[in-house]
Amino acid sequence: MTREFEGKTALVTGGTSGIGRNTAILFARAGAKVVVAGRREAEGNESVELVRAAGGEAFFVKTDVSQASEVENLVKKTVEKFGRLDVAFNNAGIEGKWVPIVSQSEEDWDRTIDINLKGVWLCLKYEIRQMLKQGGGGAIVNMSSVTGLTGGAGAATYSASKHGVIGLTKSAALENARNRIRVNAVCPAVIETAMGERAFGAPEVKKYVIGLHPLGRFGKPMEVAEAVLWMCSERASFMTGQPLVLDGGFLAGPNPPA
After folding, report:
1. What's the rounded Cα separation, in Å, for the pair 140 and 169?
2. Alpha-carbon distance 257 to 135, whole Å?
3. Average pLDDT, stretch 53-60?
4. The dihedral sign for the CA sequence 103, 105, 109, 111
5. Phi and psi for 176 in degrees, rounded to 5?
6. Distance in angstroms (rounded) separating the CA atoms of residues 49 and 231
7. Other CB atoms closer than 10 Å to residue 13's CB: what's the count?
8. Looking at residue 257, what is its pLDDT?
9. pLDDT of 256 strictly over 70
10. Which of 19, 88, 137, 201 has CB 3.0 to 4.6 Å from 11, enough for a Cys bridge?
11. 3-state secondary structure the chain
12. pLDDT of 150 above 80
């Protein structure tokens, strides 16, 4: 891997496991100094050690992205430690409770929207402020989902939050294009993560949901991480305001017969 992020600082929220952890490691291999953020301190420190094992420099900041003061502190600590912020992956999110709308609690709606949507908004707000202070330039990727592009029976709150992320992404891209700050979103289908296991781990459910992916499998965290690095790199310098779909054919249409 080329060290195309040499001299740059990368921030990854939800970096305690899965896609976020893999992305932090890839940023380090590509030369970036990495800030790992998340709510789980032990797992966050594990991610930091894996980044260091990959030859990178990193530290962890315990952060609840639904709290403005904590996100502001995250960006402040990033700059205090590494001097600047160049790229960010706003990955933190939860699945919430997947039940029909008529059974959805207001509490679960608020929690899911606060983390998945408000959290991305807060991250954009403070990340972009810092990039503007530096004179502009930078790249941000937000975590959406294929359910940000389609509905999901029983997953209305999650789907709504991920649709919102795409709206935020497009708006932030338009507001900051002249300042050379690119903002995009990544939209995976089911990925082999703890969240995927919680939602689709039961054998019959897993078999059915894999059947919705024409490639016949779930995605891997590193496949999403590779896409995020590309979107943050100069190789994607003409891309902004776009949702990039990584879905094994999920949105292309029905799975062809075996």
Report:
1. 9
2. 54
3. 95
4. negative
5. -120, 5
6. 25
7. 29
8. 47
9. no
10. 88
11. CCCCCCCCEEEEECCCCHHHHHHHHHHHHCCCEEEEEECCHHHHHHHHHHHHHCCCEEEEEECCCCCHHHHHHHHHHHHHHHCCCCEEEECCCCCCCCCCHHHCCHHHHHHHHHHHHHHHHHHHHHHHHHHHHCCCCEEEEEECCHHHCCCCCCCHHHHHHHHHHHHHHHHHHHHHHHHCEEEEEEEECCECCHHHHHHHCCHHHHHHHHCCCCCCCCECHHHHHHHHHHHHCHHHCCCCCCEEEECCCHHHCCCCCC
12. yes
Q: What is the largest CA-CA distance in the chain?
A: 56
The amino acid present at 201, given as its one-letter code, is: G
Closest by CA position to 219, among listed 196, 202, 238, 201? 196
Domains delineated in the chain: 9-191+221-245 (3.40.50.720)
Separation in Å, CA 135 to CA 5, 28, 142, 213: 18, 24, 22, 43
**For residues 44 and 119, what is the distance between their CA atoms, to the nearest angstrom?**
18
φ and ψ of 204, to 5 deg: -70, -35
Angle at 56 between CA 76 and CA 119, to 5 degrees: 40
- Which residues are marked as active site? 144, 158, 162
Looking only at the bridges linking them, the beta strands covering 9-13 and 33-38 are parallel
